[in-house]
Amino acid sequence: MDIKTATALRRLRLVSAPEAVSFLLLLVCSVLKRTTDFNAVPVMGAVHGILFILYVIFWADAWNRTKWSFKTAALYFVLSVLPTGGFFADRKLRREAEDAVIAARARQEGKVNA
Description:
The chain is mainly alpha-helical. The model has no long low-confidence stretch (mean pLDDT 90). It starts with a helix and ends with a helix. The protein has one domain. It is 88% helix and 0% strand. It is elongated.
């Protein structure tokens, strides 16, 4: 995995958890708006909107660089629209990055030993 691909995956990971948190907070704010006088929906809506747009941009970049299958790319997109999906995306992306590092080290050791 080259540095640009690793960077694309890292950016997607870094935005996935905050996007999930903002989605959950937006849901809480929506409930509070309807049950109390507290209305933070406009603020949380804007925050979540910005994080979601960043997620989609970083998702598209990661899909382009990693050459994911359509199924894998669709999974990461669906995780972005589920309230806690960003947490699962973060965990899955971390595993993918770790596997890539292990594979790169194995290839490098194979070249050194040969």
